[in-house]
């Protein structure tokens, strides 16, 4: 069965096309993500689909849309090569879920998603997917309630791990810790590409939802990402940790409509250049992508290595 044939079973739901870009963006702008601490809005203009191309080469966008072409729900499914405990599989990610407040739309959408997951192995475009997952911030209570068990037609979600977001806003004026035991932290050079690729791939192969072949794909597809953006930590001749600060601003801007008071106070500390955004202003930030520690790095060493890598980032990008 083809995916569009499956979707056609659910009146009012269809696959998105490039011509839907403007109406999807309008719906997203009216549907912020709320947590206890912040009110976050992700703006995907001018191209909603661009971030999906950053995430994976295979992506599908589903819409609940009425006769007047107004969007009432959006959801995406991306599929990528992955690892599951050393075995290669295809991993599916369910993201970008936004639903309006119409109860009939909510119930219909829930039935559609449940049917999609139940029948995925019979759908040509999804048949190779070995597992599906999604990610929800722990304090996004509304989204977590929407995945609760017992809802008619909904798929059953099994919690895998806590998920929180950590923001590094500044470096405290404290003395640095010297890494002992032959550690070296530095900026990657072009000649390090194959070594980083092998390290990243090898460590991901040990994970339950690891990336496969993703390092080289990201260097090709992510706007502005270069091998020299990577920071690596070496012990002897071996890479033992890596990360790469990178901003998805070409595809996504993060707007925080409420800044917690404790965070605002950091911006007025005398003598410190800590730039705290105003409410409604796009955050100027980079994600610490590709953050990976070798399986041989102890929990105690990880903290020191990570702090040293962050120091390197702040030294190189003092305005970060």
Notes on the structure:
The protein folds into two domains: 3-146, Aminopeptidase; 183-247 and 285-316, 3-Layer(aba) Sandwich (Aminopeptidase), CATH 3.40.630. The chain has helices spanning 3-7, 21-29, 50-55, 103-119, 141-146, 193-204, 214-221, 261-266, 299-316, and strands at 13-15, 33-34, 39-43, 58-65, 71-84, 87-99, 129-133, 183-187, 210-211, 231-235, 238-246, 253-256, 287-293. The chain is an alpha+beta fold and 320 residues long. Helix 4 links the parallel strand 6 and strand 7. Strands 1, 4, 5, 6, 7 and 9 form a six-stranded mixed sheet that branches. Strands 8-10-11-13 form a four-stranded antiparallel sheet. The model has no long low-confidence stretch (mean pLDDT 88).
Outline of the structure:
With 320 residues, the chain is α+β, with helices and mostly antiparallel strands.
Total count of helical runs of at least 4 residues: 9
In CATH terms, what is the fold-level topology of the largest domain? Aminopeptidase
How does the overall form come out from the CA principal axes? globular
How much β-strand is present in the residues? 25-35%
From the alpha carbons, calculate the radius of gyration and give it in angstroms: 21 Å
Ranges where pLDDT stays below 50 over 5 or more residues in a row are: none
Tell me the major beta sheet.
6 strands, mixed
Q: Which architecture name of the largest domain does CATH use?
A: 3-Layer(aba) Sandwich
Main CATH class of the largest domain: Alpha Beta
**Secondary-structure element sequence?**
HEHEEHEEEHEHEHEHEEEHEH
Number of strands: 13
Q: How many structural units, i.e. domains?
A: 2
Helix percentage:
25-40%
Distance linking N and C termini? 49 Å
The chain-level structural class is alpha+beta
User: What's the name of the CATH homologous superfamily of the largest domain?
Assistant: Gcn5-related N-acetyltransferase (GNAT)
Mean of the pLDDT scores?
88
């Amino acid at each position: 069965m083809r995916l569009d044939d499956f979707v056609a079973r659910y009146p009012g739901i269809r696959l998105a096309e490039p011509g839907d870009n403007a109406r999807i963006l309008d719906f997203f702008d009216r549907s912020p993500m709320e947590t206890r601490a912040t009110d976050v809005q992700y703006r995907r203009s001018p191209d909603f689909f661009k971030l999906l191309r950053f995430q994976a080469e295979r992506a599908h966008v589903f819409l609940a849309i009425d006769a007047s072409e107004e969007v009432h729900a959006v959801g995406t499914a991306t599929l990528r090569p992955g690892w599951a405990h050393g075995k290669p599989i295809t991993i599916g990610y369910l993201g970008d879920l936004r639903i309006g407040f119409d109860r009939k739309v909510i119930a219909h959408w829930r039935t559609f998603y449940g049917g999609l997951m139940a029948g995925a192995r019979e759908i040509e475009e999804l048949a190779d997917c070995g597992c599906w997952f999604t990610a929800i911030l722990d304090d996004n209570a509304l989204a977590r309630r929407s995945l609760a068990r017992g809802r008619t037609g909904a798929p059953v979600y099994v919690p895998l791990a806590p998920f929180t977001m950590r923001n590094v806003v500044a470096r405290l004026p404290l003395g640095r810790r010297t890494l002992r035991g032959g550690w070296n932290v530095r900026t990657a050079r072009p000649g390090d590409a194959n070594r980083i690729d092998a390290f990243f791939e090898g460590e991901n192969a040990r994970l339950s939802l690891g990336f496969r072949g993703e390092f080289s794909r990201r260097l090709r597809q992510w706007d502005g990402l270069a091998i020299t953006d990577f920071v690596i930590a070496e012990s002897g001749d071996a890479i033992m940790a890596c990360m790469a600060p990178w901003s998805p601003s070409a595809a996504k801007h993060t707007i925080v409509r409420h800044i917690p008071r404790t965070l605002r106070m950091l911006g007025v500390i005398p003598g410190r250049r800590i730039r705290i955004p105003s409410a409604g202003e796009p955050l100027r930030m980079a994600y610490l992508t590709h953050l990976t520690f070798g399986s041989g790095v102890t929990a105690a060493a990880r903290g020191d290595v990570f702090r040293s890598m962050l120091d390197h980032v702040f030294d190189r990008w003092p305005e970060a």
